[in-house]
Design a protein that fits this description.
Layout lengths: L3 H7 L4 H12 L2 H24 L18 H13 L4 E5 L5 H12 L5 E4 L8 H5 L14 E4 L10 H7 L4 E7 L12 H14 L4 E5 L15 E5 L13 E5 L1 H11 L15 H31 L3 E3 L11 E4 L3 H13 L21 E4 L12 E5 L5 E5 L4 H17 L8
Parallel strand pairs: 2-3, 2-4, 4-5, 5-6
Antiparallel strand pairs: 1-7, 6-7, 8-9, 9-12, 10-11, 11-12
The structure holds pyridoxal-5'-phosphate.
Length: 426
Amino acid sequence: MKDINELYGELGISRELLEYSEKVLSGLEDRFSRIDETAEYNQLRVMKAFRENRVSEACLLGTTGYGYNDLGRDTLERVYADLFGTEDALVRPQITCGTHALAVALMGNLRPGDELLSPVGKPYDTLEEVIGIRESRGSLKEYGITYRQVDLKEDGSFDYEGIREALNDRTKLVTVQRSKGYQTRPSFSVTQINELIEIIRGIKPEAMIMVDNCYGEFTEREEPKADILVGSLIKNPGGGLVPSGGYIAGKCECVENAAARLTSPGLLKEVGASLGQLSGMYQGLFLSPVVTASALKGAIFAAALYEGAGFEVYPGADTERHDIIQAVTFHDPEGVIGFCEGIQEASPVDSFVRPEPWDMPGYDSKVIMAAGTFVSGSSIELSADGPIKEPYTVYFQGGLTWPHAKYGILRSFRRLMEKGIAKVPV
Ligand SMILES: *Cc1c(COP(=O)(O)O)cnc(C)c1O
């Protein structure tokens, strides 16, 4: 039998890089064991929700056509509501992506004349067009819904004074993005978000509070206590098995408002066939705590490996995690490109393909993406992407298994060594 270093060698990882990697990993043991404990905790929470809602074999089958009385869909929505600590949930393959889920939640819950507030600075890029920050067909702005934003303070904390001033008679909905997305700012812990929510409720109890929960699910032992939680099923809660979909969990009223928009007024949650997707949606949710843990380990390993080699990483290797995204800044477009090329080389699908920057819909600069994934564009699978603009930061996330995440990160480093951008530190 070959030893593992030989096998790594055949997969392009040199002895020198492996030795460096081992040194980095020996400093991460405590972090990794805490991540495993969180996964165990969340696995039990998932099991409890499955048991209490009596998930059965019949739930895995689903419906076609209108999808009336879809036992599996309705039970899955109960499971999500219990897990996320909400009254109700909408979990559907008809929700095309995270942006769509967020747009449905916003458009369903806002009316002309209302104002939307983001107290955590600029939202995710694709939401700029949903809101109308960038002019766009069908935006909230076109429907007479205004938007206000309070930026974070210099140190990344909430500007409570600014938030107090921004909340007004027309503020109907407050949106809080948990993860940094394509930005270099802290991702917020559930504790921080809950504090912010309490303060906003104290000032304006009738405002609905929504959390863009993308990438945050199962990274901690609880989810934020918001009126609406929104996310994508090709990220954490899909566990890598869901081919398409999103969720909107929250208060009954908020979820019904969203359902009126997703399906139709009057039809609400009663229609929407599950189209044979239920089995993967259940199984993916079941696996999600452990898959998310693999992705978290990958993020921390990448941070430590690149930080140790002199690169700017965000968050830093020692920082507590609240999402699965790791940013590495190169100040050089070739760094972003090389990193993504390496991740692509380590992908189970299309490992022989070279990714290139392209004009992705919804983004205002070219973006390069490495995504040799089973589900197209899935970012709970090993993937990396970065806008080709200053400061040339790549965002890395995912890894269905920790060994794969590790290999991908090493392969990215190897590619940057080939390009003369990275060196193993002495
Ligand atoms: C991924 C993401 C979105 C949008 O999701 P898509 O599925 O790419 O449309 C929104 N917000 C955050 C924070 C995200 O990470």
